[in-house]
Design goal:
The complex is a heterodimer. Chain A is mostly helical. Chain A folds into 2 domains: 72 residues, no CATH class; 242 residues, no CATH class. Chain A has 12 helices and no strands. Classes of the chains: A mainly alpha, B mainly alpha. Chains A and B meet through helix 1, helix 2, helix 3, helix 8 and helix 11 of A and strand 2, helix 2, helix 4, helix 5 and helix 7 of B.
């Protein structure tokens, strides 16, 4: 069949398809008319014919343009967001973390290890803190915790701190994740750095008589914040490890798959840090008796531990963890 | 053609192959600069606009800065068909490697890993990586499985061949030759007449004529190939 006949034969159908495309584009609808997929496949057929018969480039390109537009509508990712979010936190997220238990352990060791080490070291020889922190920093944190957490802060500055915590903590988590691409070295370095810093501050304040002001402030949001940072490290390390030990896959494929997995952990991390920022700004600084702060904080730590150890187990192994 | 063009073939589930044009580093750099200027402009505007709100204003500023800094490209890519305003201005977009529109996971991965591509300065790592693969993917693209392609599949002559005299070519032509003739005929409107005559003169042996006459001859053959009736 010559090109002119080919075009004349199909003109009507193509116009119909174009009208459907236009309607889809304008209303930005996700669901197409019922016969759209059929129309689209017939157009694919036309394109294949036009190509194999060597019809003119402009015709082929026009057909390809229409096919591409239809393809973008038909194959866009379906997001039933609400349900997926629910399932994610009820099951997928803790399951993912349990599946990565080796990396979680390693990552926790990198973050919490230096803290324990410094607690012991600064407990026995207090001047060691000057090896880790500058005198200015020490002076600054001492002044920060000289008063009880609640004193002298209005609602305005609560909101300000909330914003600051979100930016700062999630920023740290996102960098920890991205640093994983450098064979996991970036993640490990950020975890160690934070472990050393937080450990030195905590140990110093604890042994210099600021313990009550410090611990009542940090115990609550720490339950979400510290595990979240460790898990951001897990996400980064997952990527880095896939480059070092790709297994049966090519390195690029391994990286792509592990990045998909890692970013799912990161979703959980971001939500944990949002909650932590809320706690840190509106709860940790509130004027509650120390015993209440400790009780709530301790409960939060137990809840986190229980969540990651137990949540989603009853559902059994679920394949959906691996889908995108 | 594929050997010299930056074409990237994608096979769809419908068994058809689409050819996409991948985008090189220069347009992407320009798009990034446009986005950078937009972001900087919005931030400066907000700093001025929210100054009177004091602490609350600062809090809002920090939140918006966080959003713009980390999530600007992600939100735009996912919600506006794969293109930030900068990319849109340059007529390019991000898609999955399999040709489907970019989703949340892929967009978040490629945009968070930007930081690594940026190292040690001004996307040096990303630039080197782009030259090490055939699709101009930076590290973030490789991890996310995305490519940046041109929105429009190249120049599209909208008009088909105008009617006119029809004549059979003196010798049988194979499919490639037929297509070359058709392409010439469809583009002749956009070519300088002298250049068109020069091109047509390449077939002097077949057409037996030069100049405008040669061009007309080729057009007549093309109409025959396309199936026009005399």
């Amino acid at each position: 069949m010559k090109q002119a006949d080919f075009v004349a034969h199909r003109r009507e159908r193509w116009e119909r398809y174009q009208n459907q495309l236009k309607a889809l584009r304008q209303r930005n609808r996700r669901e197409a008319p019922r016969d759209f997929p059929g129309q689209y496949r017939r157009l694919c057929n036309d394109l294949a014919l036009a190509r194999s018969r060597g019809y003119s480039l402009s015709l082929v390109q026009r057909l390809q343009g229409w096919v591409m537009e239809g393809h973008a509508f038909l194959y866009q990712p379906q997001a039933r967001l609400g349900r997926r979010i629910g399932a994610f936190f009820a099951r997928d997220f803790p399951t993912l973390v349990r599946e990565e238990w080796r990396l979680t352990l390693l990552s926790s060791l990198l973050l919490f290890g230096p803290m324990l080490w410094l607690a012991w070291l600064i407990g026995t020889s207090p001047e060691f803190v000057y090896r880790i922190l500058t005198p200015e920093t020490i002076d600054q944190v001492e002044r920060m915790y000289a008063d009880a957490p609640s004193s002298g802060r209005g609602a305005d500055s609560d909101i300000f701190m909330f914003a600051f915590y979100i930016m700062n903590n999630i920023g740290v988590a996102l960098r920890t994740f991205a640093g994983g691409l450098v064979f996991g070295i970036g993640s490990a370095a950020i975890l160690l750095f934070n472990g050393l810093n937080i450990g030195a501050v905590a140990a110093h304040l604890s042994f210099q008589g600021y313990h009550e002001n410090f611990w009542t402030f940090v115990i609550g949001h720490g339950a979400l914040e510290l595990p979240a940072i460790a898990l951001a490290g897990v996400a980064g390390a997952r990527m880095g490890l896939s480059l070092l030990l790709p297994g049966q896959l090519g390195r690029l494929t391994a990286l792509r798959r592990s990045a998909r997995r890692a970013v799912r952990i990161l979703y959980g991390v971001i939500v944990m840090l949002l909650l932590a920022a809320g706690l840190e700004a509106f709860w940790s600084a509130s004027a509650q008796p120390a015993i209440v702060k400790y009780a709530v904080g301790g409960t939060l730590w137990l809840l986190m531990l229980g969540y990651f150890l137990l949540a989603g187990r009853s559902a059994g192994p679920d394949k959906s963890v691996h889908e995108d | 053609m594929r050997a010299i063009d930056s074409l990237y073939p994608v096979e769809t589930p419908d068994g058809i192959e689409l050819s996409l044009h991948v985008v090189g580093p220069v347009p992407r750099g320009v798009a990034w600069t446009v986005d950078f200027l937009i972001r900087a402009g919005v931030m400066i505007g907000l700093v001025l606009a929210l100054a009177w709100l004091e602490a609350l204003g600062t809090a809002l500023l920090i939140l918006i800065w966080f959003l713009i800094n980390w999530w600007y490209p992600v939100l735009f890519e996912v919600l506006t068909h794969g293109a930030t305003p900068g990319k849109k201005a340059l007529g390019i977009k991000v898609i999955h490697q399999d040709g489907t529109p970019v989703g949340w996971s892929a967009s978040i991965i490629r945009n968070l890993l930007r930081q690594v591509d940026f190292l040690p300065f001004l996307y040096a790592t990303g630039l080197v990586t782009m030259f090490l693969n055939s699709r101009f993917q930076r590290l973030g693209d490789l991890a996310a499985g995305t490519v940046v392609v041109y929105r429009d599949p190249g120049p599209r002559a909208s008009e088909l061949l105008a009617p006119g005299p029809v004549e059979a070519p003196p010798v049988p032509l194979d499919a490639g030759e037929q297509q070359a003739l058709l392409s010439f005929a469809e583009r002749v409107r956009h070519i300088n007449p002298k250049r068109a005559a020069e091109l047509a003169a390449e077939l002097r042996v077949l057409s037996g004529s030069d100049g405008q006459e040669g061009v007309d001859r080729l057009l007549a053959w093309s109409r025959f190939i396309a199936g026009h009736r005399p």
